[in-house]
Amino acid sequence: MAFTLSSITSTDVFLAFVAGLLPALLWLWFWLKEDSHPEPRQVLILTFLAGMMMAVVALFLEQFALFAVNKTFKSFSPAFVSIFLLFVWATIEEIAKYKAAKSAALRLPSFDEPIDAIVYLITAALGFAALENTLFLLKVIGAQGMLVGFITGNLRFLGATLLHIITSSIVGASIAFSFFHREKIFHNVLGGLLLATALHTLFNYFIIKSGSANLFKIFIPLWFAVVVLIFIFEKIKGLKKNNN
């Protein structure tokens, strides 16, 4: 999808930013309503911005990974290289979102109950998704125009943004369930990151394999995962210090 910077206007940049940001803010509003003890607004803003910053870091790391994997595995089959690259990219993104939440919120006194882990991980994920979507939409608008960009933006609202919420909530849940058992936190976070990365990789693989014709079929499991996530939210709200 080739385009030049000269084909993008300031209006395109503004609209792409709004189209990337608004869905993320809508999702954030939805999930913050699930938290009965709201987090400090300034910490949420910092966590969201940290997620956006880590999206830039992830972009550069993914470009390096593309070069390194293609060079290292050039004698392997293209199918293997593609799948392995998807796994590496998913790993980069899941760690980036976790690092954003950890640096901006999880070390602060406001992280004082298990449910906060999911709230902050989702907030970081939505900041990440907002910038990622903006950059993606700029590419689409520059190559195919505003209408296609608008349609694509709605699809990313349904798919990519939701995927980031679900995978980061897995990591958040792994932290939440070790909140009163700090000796387990390393293994829980590692397990959460591995599970999130595997799900992220599978989703991207099926998106590429199925093409645009079957996108909504792929989105159905994500919506089912949202229902499960709401149940987990309620479960974590009930965690007490004496729980095992």
Q: How far is the first residue's CA from the last residue's CA?
A: 52 Å
Helix and strand element order:
HHHHHHHH
Low-confidence stretches: 1-6
| Helix proportion range | over 70%
Mean pLDDT: 83
Shape: globular
Backbone structural class: mainly alpha
Secondary structure tally, helices = 8
Largest sheet: none
**Percent strand:** under 5%
User: What's the domain count?
Assistant: 1
- Rg from alpha-carbon coordinates: 18 Å
* Number of strand segments: 0
Helix/strand layout:
Blueprint: H1 10-32, H2 41-72, H3 78-106, H4 115-144, H5 146-158, H6 160-176, H7 185-210, H8 215-237
Helix pairs in contact: 1-4, 1-5, 2-3, 2-4, 3-4, 3-7, 4-5, 4-6, 6-7, 6-8
Features:
mainly alpha
What this model shows, in words?
It is built from eight helices and no strands. The chain has 244 residues and is mostly helical. The protein is globular.
